[in-house]
Design a protein that fits this description.
mainly alpha; globular
C-alpha cells in the first residue's frame, strides 16, 4: 500500500506530467466542443443529410491518416513539448479564422465548405499533436509509473469528456454558433499557454528532416513493428476496433438524436433538448472509464493481453445488445425511452471495455518499444487504427439513409469478428 502511495505521489509531484495532463484536458475539451458542435451543425445545415455528415468525417479523417507518417517523424526529431504548444496555438488560429469566415458569409453551401477546410487543416495539425503527446509521457515519467500515468490519463480523458459533452450539450441550444467556436478557440489557446512551461531533457537530433527521410523512417518502423508479433496483432485489433466502433459515436449518436429522439416524446424532454442525449451517452462512457481507470491505477495488471481480450468481449456484447434493443424498442414497439435507458447502460459497459483495452496497450507499447522509435511507432499505429475509419464513416453515413438499425447490425458483426480474433489469436495466447 505504501509503495503505491509513493508512486501516485511521485506522479503528481512531476511538474512536467501535471502540465502535460492539464494541457491535454484543455485541448481535448476544445476538441470535444468542436466535434459535438460540427456534427449537429452540418446536419442542421443540410436538413439531416447523414451522407454529407459522413463525407465530412471521412475526408477530414483521411487527411489525418495521410499526415500521420510525417507527424511521427517530426515528433522523433524535434522537441515534443514545443510541438504540443505550437500545434495548439495553430488550432486556435484555425478555429478563429473559421468563425470569422462564417460571420461574413450567409450561404449554407459556403459555410459547409469552410467547415470542411477547417476540419482538414485541424486534422493535419492533430496528426502531429497526437504522437507528440503520447511519446512525451515515457520521457517525463519513470518506467515503474507508466501504468499509473496511463490510468491517470484515462481518468482525465473521461473527466474532460464528461465536462465537455455536458457543457456543449446545453450550450449548443443556448449560444450562437459564433460564440461556441470562440470558446473552442479559447480552449486551444489556453492549452498552448499551459504547454509552454513543459521542460524536459531534450537532446537535439543531428539529422535533417526531408521527404526521403520520412519514408525511410516509416519503412524502417514498419519493419521493426513486424518483428514484434504481438504488437503487430494488437495493431490489427485496433484497426478493426476503430473501424467498427467509432461510427457509433461519430455517426449514430448524433443522427439518432436529431431523428428518433427529436420526433418523439422522449425521456427528460421537459428539461433538455434532444441533443442532450448524445451528451448523456458520452457521459456514461466516461463515468465507466473513470471507474475502470481508478482500478487500473491502483492494481498491477499481471497479464495485459488477458485484460485486452476481456475489453473486446465486453464491447462486442454491449453493441450487440444495443443493436437488438434498438430494433425491438425503437423500430418494432415504439418504446424509445426503454432504448434510451438500455443504451445508456451499454455505454457504461463500453466505457469500461475501452479502458481495459487502451491502458494495457499503451503500457505494453511504452515498455517494449525503443524510445527512439516510439513517436514513429505511435504514428504508424495511428495510420493503422485510423486508416480505414474515414472510409467507414462515409459508408456509415450512407447506411444511415436506410435506417439506424442497419448501421448497428453491420457494426455488431464487425465487432464480433474482431473479438473472435482477439480471443483465439495464437500470438496473444503465447503472452503471459
Amino acid at each position: 500500500m505504501n509503495m503505491e502511495s509513493v508512486k501516485k505521489k511521485s506522479i503528481f509531484k512531476n511538474k512536467n506530467f501535471v502540465l502535460t495532463a492539464l494541457g491535454a484536458v484543455e485541448s481535448n475539451i476544445g476538441a470535444i466542443f468542436y466535434n459535438f458542435f460540427v456534427s449537429f451543425y452540418i446536419l442542421s445545415l443540410t436538413n439531416n443529410n447523414s451522407a454529407i455528415q459522413g463525407l465530412y468525417l471521412g475526408i477530414t479523417g483521411l487527411f489525418f491518416v495521410l499526415a500521420s507518417p510525417i507527424g511521427g517523424v517530426i515528433v522523433d526529431k524535434f522537441n515534443k513539448a514545443k510541438i504540443l504548444y505550437v500545434c495548439d496555438f495553430l488550432r486556435s488560429f484555425v478555429i478563429l479564422a473559421t468563425v470569422v469566415s462564417i460571420m461574413l458569409i450567409d450561404n449554407n453551401t459556403l459555410i459547409i465548405i469552410i467547415l470542411f477546410i477547417g476540419g482538414v487543416i485541424g486534422n493535419i495539425i492533430g496528426a502531429i499533436f497526437a504522437p507528440a503527446g503520447s511519446s512525451l509521457i515515457p520521457e517525463i515519467v519513470g518506467v515503474e509509473d507508466l501504468q499509473t500515468a496511463n490510468s491517470i490519463s484515462g481518468i482525465t480523458t473521461a473527466l474532460q469528456t464528461i465536462i465537455g459533452t455536458t457543457l456543449v450539450g446545453f450550450l449548443y441550444n443556448a449560444l450562437s454558433t459564433n460564440v461556441i467556436l470562440f470558446i473552442v478557440s479559447g480552449f486551444y489557446f489556453l492549452s498552448g499557454v499551459t504547454e509552454l512551461f513543459i521542460k524536459y531533457d531534450y537532446k537535439k537530433k543531428e539529422s535533417q528532416l526531408s521527404l526521403r527521410i520520412v519514408f525511410k523512417d516509416m519503412k524502417d518502423t514498419f519493419s521493426y513493428i513486424k518483428t514484434q508479433r504481438s504488437i503487430f496483432i494488437l495493431l490489427c485489433l485496433l484497426i478493426f476496433l476503430n473501424l467498427f466502433f467509432n461510427p457509433i459515436q461519430t455517426n449514430f449518436f448524433s443522427y439518432f438524436c436529431v431523428t428518433d429522439v427529436a420526433s418523439n416524446n422522449y425521456l427528460l424532454s421537459k428539461i433538455c433538448a434532444p441533443e442532450i442525449w448524445q451528451s448523456i451517452f458520452c457521459v456514461a462512457l466516461s463515468v465507466a472509464s473513470i471507474l475502470m481507470s481508478l482500478i487500473f491505477a491502483n492494481i498491477k495488471i499481471r497479464n495485459y493481453f488477458k485484460a485486452i481480450k476481456k475489453g473486446f468481449l465486453i464491447i462486442s456484447l454491449a453493441v450487440i445488445v444495443m443493436t437488438i434493443s434498438y430494433f425491438v424498442f425503437v423500430r418494432k414497439t415504439a418504446n424509445l425511452n426503454v432504448f434510451l435507458v438500455i443504451n445508456t447502460i451499454m455505454c457504461l459497459l463500453i466505457g469500461a471495455g475501452v479502458v481495459s483495452i487502451n491502458v494495457p496497450i499503451a503500457s505494453t507499447l511504452q515498455e517494449k518499444v525503443d524510445i527512439t522509435k516510439y513517436g514513429k511507432v505511435m504514428s504508424l499505429i495511428q495510420i493503422g487504427a485510423q486508416g480505414l475509419t474515414p472510409v467507414m464513416t462515409l459508408i456509415a453515413g450512407l447506411i444511415l439513409l436506410s435506417g439506424s438499425e442497419y448501421l448497428l447490425l453491420v457494426l455488431s458483426i464487425g465487432l464480433i469478428l474482431t473479438t473472435l480474433i482477439a480471443l483465439f489469436s495464437k500470438k496473444l495466447k503465447e503472452h503471459k
